[in-house]
NADH-ubiquinone oxidoreductase chain 4
Amino acid sequence: MLKFFFMIMFMNFFIFYKNIYWMVQNFIFLISGLFMLKISSSYYFCEISYYFGLDMLSYGLIFLSFWICGLMLMASENLVRNSNYLSLFLFMILFLLLMLMFTFSSMSMFMFYLFFESSLIPTLFLILGWGYQPERLQAGIYLLFYTLLASLPLLIGIFYIKNNDFTMNFVLLSYSKLYNLEFLYLCMVFAFLVKMPMFLVHLWLPKAHVEAPVSGSMILAGVLLKLGGYGLLRVFSFLQIMGMKFNFVWVSISLIGGVLVSLICLRQMDLKALIAYSSVAHMGIVLSGLMTMTYWGISGSYTLMIAHGLCSSGLFCLANISYERMGSRSLLINSGMLNFMPSLSLWWFLLCSGNMAAPPTLNLLGEISLLNSIVSWSWLTMISLAFLSFFSAGYTLYLFAYSQHGKVYAGVNFFSSGVIREYLLLMLHWLPLNLMIMKSNFCMLWI
């Protein structure tokens, strides 16, 4: 692991050179290629140093972080043209990538907490520095306060566990079973529920997405929402007894919230707000499956986290491509794009079908596993799941049909084609999403 840490740390010196932007992006893809060779069939931690290690759960999420960060640079070409504090932008992305690597490979719970919170700082700077509108200040404050307030009890919970179990190592803690400590359970779980985000504590996410630049939206949807799921997967190894008592609360909120958020999606006029709310609905079903603590639930939630990271990030790229041409994210102005940019319509179709879990995407595998686990947990959940699946298809078709069909906005009287960089960017989102289902046993291997 150390070679990857050092490689990213020393890449920070690149930012002082001129015209180095694409070199940094190529190096990130090189690192992801090298990291791909590190794949191990070990279920337990390997590549162990004093504080850092890698298991199957970490591997997929670190690889996703590398991939999305490389694509973030590819999507942000406008910054290169405008030279808009380019060195600082590169530093933020490299710092964020380093923090995410540290977070996913930490073996100590305190180290995990430290880097989990540190990843918030570069995200906040991305929104504040390169966001579109003055409301980005309010969005940044929402993001900061929601996540920081919820994670303070987590710190207290970690110190409580250290005092009682004399360790903060995840491997050793998995043999510890904590009984009848309701307050501790709430402390440990709540920070991750906000980060997912669970319905009722989700308001920071649409605000942050709408105000963030395309790179900020990609990393938020692609990786930062997965921090919550990853944290829950780690802490439930020693909170199983408490989870069996109280998890029904979170499952109920998530499923009902998923249906309500799907209805909210159907009345959105902003492209990015619609995709952001759809992320909340998808994370609701991930959270429900994870909270059942069954084999299918945990494997399915992990699979859907990876799939959603690629699919949602790709949709944000598409929304940004339309925004760059039209100067607006409104569906009223972005209607009839089939006439204006016909070559992009295929990509809208492919990524929208991924968003509604159509075969052969990885989303389908994740959703089938989650439906299995949630219905086997309680047959009553079938009602919410039926509505959730139906409305999920509903708002995705609404997004596709409204943006691609209909009358073209009156101000548009010319034809536009995408550039090769944009097609490559979309291809690199879509290919892994559809190829990984061919090796679907890998997603279910770690448990």
